[in-house]
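[SOLVED] Need 3D model of a two-part complex

Original post:
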Amino acid sequence: MIEVTCTAPINIAVIKYWGKRDEKLILPINESTSATLDQSQLCAKTTVAASPDFTSDQMWLNGQEQSMDSARLQNVLKEIRRRARKRKSDGSGEDRVNWHVHICSENNFPTAAGLASSAAGLACLVFSLSKLFEVEGDISDVARQGSGSACRSIYGGFVEWTMGTEVDGSDSRALQIASETHWPQMRVLILVVSAKKKHVGSTTGMQTSVKTSQLLAHRAEKIVPERMVEMRRAIKDKDFQTFAEITMKDSNQLHACCLDTYPPVTYMTDTSRDIVRLVHAVNNHYGENKVAYTFDAGPNACLYLMEDMVPTMLGLVQNFFPPEQDHGEAFLTGLPSKVSTPSQELLNAIPLEPSVGAVQYIIHTKVGPGPQVLIDQSESLLDSTGQPKSSTQ
Amino acid sequence: MIEVTCTAPINIAVIKYWGKRDEKLILPINESTSATLDQSQLCAKTTVAASPDFTSDQMWLNGQEQSMDSARLQNVLKEIRRRARKRKSDGSGEDRVNWHVHICSENNFPTAAGLASSAAGLACLVFSLSKLFEVEGDISDVARQGSGSACRSIYGGFVEWTMGTEVDGSDSRALQIASETHWPQMRVLILVVSAKKKHVGSTTGMQTSVKTSQLLAHRAEKIVPERMVEMRRAIKDKDFQTFAEITMKDSNQLHACCLDTYPPVTYMTDTSRDIVRLVHAVNNHYGENKVAYTFDAGPNACLYLMEDMVPTMLGLVQNFFPPEQDHGEAFLTGLPSKVSTPSQELLNAIPLEPSVGAVQYIIHTKVGPGPQVLIDQSESLLDSTGQPKSSTQ
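Solution:
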């Protein structure tokens, strides 16, 4: 049995991907840009093993066996094996490529939180398989076929996903535009908003948007290309004013297109909108953009901000979205930080009433590197027979 | 002293007006279509009087004296007087036009409910002044200068507001496309949603949208012109399927453009969105559009539906948005109707949990005629000296 265990990060788009021009190959209708988040706080972890003794491909996710029937999963496996065979055309190790695989995955964060778990999970699977079968070169296009935005989780730092022009999708790939060390002051606060499960999954949501929203087509064709250029420059120049403005505008435009979808798709809740108001009020108070919000296909807010603003924002979030009295878990997780008590002047500038329990908890993190191979064998999620360890859940 | 007392209706757009190309003349960036609502349930009422004894123009709204300084109000008064003089060029009654006016207005519905009170109010003022000074011909362009959508309240039934092409705005007018008797089965339910005051007024909101939303420009230029044609045909053919679909899509697109505004403008709340879900679930259950929602610059839903669906929808609203136990006032006002208890099958088709108190009350009304002159002198809001009657509030 050969095996490898890896972790892969989630990524949070600042220019959003919404809509496919090819459902099978997962080719987007517009380019997108994201930051990859540090894996100490949020990551997917996967062990893949191959053995001549395995009688079938098998997969476990968070302790539960999963069907391997998914077309996307099959495409990913097939493509990795094809590349491995091509590379091993001298014959060495060719037989290993034909062994069945056991895949065991878990997330270190609640899947239900609505974070982009499938992106991290698929990136981790593709990265792990590429290591197991010694595939080299860019594998972001393979990850893309597993789950569109997974391609961006193949790289650390700031990453663009190019649309590509080839019919086979071979040039629709992720590209690092700046590494995780480029803008070291950048911090990320994820405000996990209390909510029931989301109403429409992002795959279905974007399909309906592509079919019905006339605004989405205009966005993809006319607006995003300009924003990509501006955003690239803002990241390279560490220009937070522009970075924040485009990030907020693009998040709003994604959700505008969801609302223009028929029937409309809504992910943001009253609490999400209160967070939007909070951020604009803070920026207005300081006379410059100090914080940027962005929302994916769920009510959680992701805030980008500089390190020196973290204590202030934490204080404001605690003030306006205080945890319930009997809140069992830590309200703040991730990177440690001071929490500043907001000044009365700042509080007066914010047109909100406190909403107890509206934010469940805060994850404090930063921009981080791409997927990692774990050297320590004890990290494996599979036992020596290739079965999930009992402690994986 | 000469005086006249009139009422004027509110109107609810089914293709929305959002954005001015000329702030002073109030010229819109796109055409719009609305239905005028019956005045038995909702109207503005205005008494205007003129007398050589009045020492200044004065105005009272809902019992409170108002400043006459508003540029819009002055424009309206000036234009009505100009037309009156032009008409009286033979000299008869010319002097009356120069008398000061006393204006006393009230609404028969709560202004805070976020209904289009300014449209009804300005339409009523302009209509009343035109009667007082015997101005004839179309006055919708004068009402437009008072408050854009007021021009549509000058006519009953189904009304379009044309953009016009003249620089002076003289051809940006309202036009009745079908009278109030054309589609007699049409009913309207206004669900007044419990909410604090709205965050951004519609005048400011649309200014910011015009300045910052790239989607709004596309909507006005490319999307609305097609919808106007389809909507006109749907109304003429009494095609509720199309009427409902365009109405819902256009409401969603207006709010999408508000969200694409920077900073974003939001009027719909979680309750508004629950009503959207309710309507789509109902239509889905019946396999055709039975109800259409539309939202203006506030969280209240306006539902268009056929008379035979009213008892069912009332039953559903009472089920999913039941009033608080200690709800003092009537939950249903306006036209009387049976309330049907929804079948279990229908209830099962609706993915909502009941939200107690989320809807404050329901106004049941229908499409109605344009402004009316009240013949009964006891209806006057002014006493014989031209002062507000004490009972006006």
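Edit: The longest helix of chain A spans residues 214-236.
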